Description:
ten-stranded antiparallel β-sheet, single chain, seven-stranded parallel β-sheet, 12 helices, binds 1-deoxynojirimycin, alpha+beta, TIM Barrel, Beta-galactosidase, Chain A, domain 5
Amino acid sequence: MYKSVIFFCFIFVSSENSLLATRFFNLFSPDLTMQFNIQLTADGIVKYSLYADKMPLVKEGRMGIKLLNQLSFDKGFELVSIDTSSIDLFWEPVWGEEKRIRNHCKRMLVHLQHMSTGRKWMIEVRLYNDGVGFRYIFPVQDGFSHFIIEDELTSFPLSDDHSCFWIPGDSDSNEYSYSKTKLKEIYALQGNPGNDIGFKSLISDTTVQTPLTMRTKSDAYVSIHEAALVNYPAMMLGIHRKSLTLKTELVADAIGNKAYLNAGDQTPWRVILFARKASDLLRNRIILNLNEPSALNETSWIKPGKYLGIWWEMHLKTKDWVCQTNFDSLKHKSHGASTDHVLAYIDFASAHKIPYLLVEGWNEGWENGDGGWSERKFIFTKPYPDFDLNRISKYAAEKNVRLIMHHETYGTVTDYERQMHDAFDLMQQYNYPIVKTGYVGRLVPRGEHHDGQWMVNHYAHVAKKTADRKIMLNVHEAVRPTGLHRTYPNWISSEAGRGNEFNAWGQGNPPEHETILPFTRLLGGPMDYTPGIFQLKLNVYGLPEKQQVNTTLAKQLALYVTLYSPLQMAADLIENYEKHPIAFQFIKDVATDWDTTVVIDAMPGDFVYMARKQKAKNNWFVGMITDEQARDHTIIFDFLEPGKKYEAKIYMDGTTAHWQSNPMDYKIESRSLNSKDKLKIKLAPGGGCAISLMQMD
Ligand code: NOJ
Ligand code: CA
């Protein structure tokens, strides 16, 4: 079934060889539209440049790594040989936005050696029709066993002062809303509403996070990110305004070092994605292609799906994570994870065929804090006395609902590593298939960062340990994804961005936020955004008058399609779904795993229109969202199978809908549609539209 063609070509270069003299090597993408050049300067510095359609995207970027107290991979290198080859194959992800992915690129392996010491260094490049990835490989060799990275020198000198969608470089959080400015106008320390981890670790005024997505003057898109972040700190980008150059800034550890590696290791891929138009960026699969295939042989236990939660109530402050019997009841509301309340959620999930239920605040430890973000000690094997684990798990099994266990660590990572094996034992004993982990707050050990090498290794360790036990993993407050879910498909979702929960506190998310996420955060992997809030005005819960979710109700539905995750929450309270049973039908129907994804049209910061075909079924779901502007768009249903009829339900903004003044005005229409039909859809300011298209017999 798989088509695989790999051609090899090997060029050996001796010091007499004329190739060495030119010191300039190029590679063309399979369709010849992209060109990647590597250049060795006279003093043995390695530089690269990237062209698309003969136009420069990156001009003479630096390659290299500076080591602490050792010969660095920075200058004095000469070429030994170059291998070139092609990759052209198809592979099938365990779950995803499409069932079959083509990996089609040209590959170049550059062997270098240090002119005076002979120290070997390799650079691997994979050039695609829509971007490039390159990484550094440090071969095992005499006199070289382990090393400390002081700085990575990789730079990206850009061809122009592009318009950027950026969040500030923070070593501990990515939970920011996006700013849109020219590269030269980035001031990362200003004007950014806070994250939810209680403190900031902003690096500098000119450091931003990746994916950094940029629009060029000709309306093409370039995005810089990384793939396969393994045993290495996350890459931030420092901006040199004058030269329009971005430089890799690795997140440091507690004593200022960047990474500890061994001979035989390699860096993650540095990735530059290119799209001639915005919607093409959402079809780019380079990051997945650069990751290793699944490390798991047997994956039938990994099942995408939707989940309800004892969750939103705590964010609304109508219920608490803390159990009153252990705590000062005057200060806190009633406990969310009490047995009766959980049983009611199991009943509702079962009645509506929602397969999973998250319960937060089930275990001891929430009470040992001051209610703020200070350090706590959790016990991941000890339920609160009013959470009857035996009864709850038995009842859930009878009702065909599976429970998601919550492990909030509040950053106490060393303690979690001590406890997690027992905690996973408990999960297996009670048949929990999914764990949601969380890392709110400053880390223990102190001085380490959420995006540093130590934590990157921790997340991967948890992914492996959960995989060993056939447990799926959803991580909050982790480093942003880099496609590792290809290798560990049990790592079914991550937050790693500013989710819907922000709308329950403080400033919330601006209406354009969800139109930017697919072009930035989601390029690395799925997001547990937690959509599906129907009661959008939150003053009804006693929160401040202005507190609300900054979308219309129809847009909350559309997010199930436009914000990809194989694990999607139905985040609102049961009572709100009971008040809107017909709108809730869309959440019940919408799929979480897909055969095909069609980007109808999209523009970051403005709108995203997408259609997706349910995995192994001939049903389609359309999601359309807009920013604060009202829009209309005529959908052409030519993606449907010709000759078939579909029962369509259209969940639209009502005529007076507006994200701020009237977010809950919606209307639903039913009709039959086929591939020749067109439909004009109106989106309210901050609004959206969701359509289910079920094939009729
Ligand atoms: C932040 C997480 O994003 C949220 O989902 C969770 O409820 C709280 N931390 C408490 O763990
Ligand atoms: Ca969070």
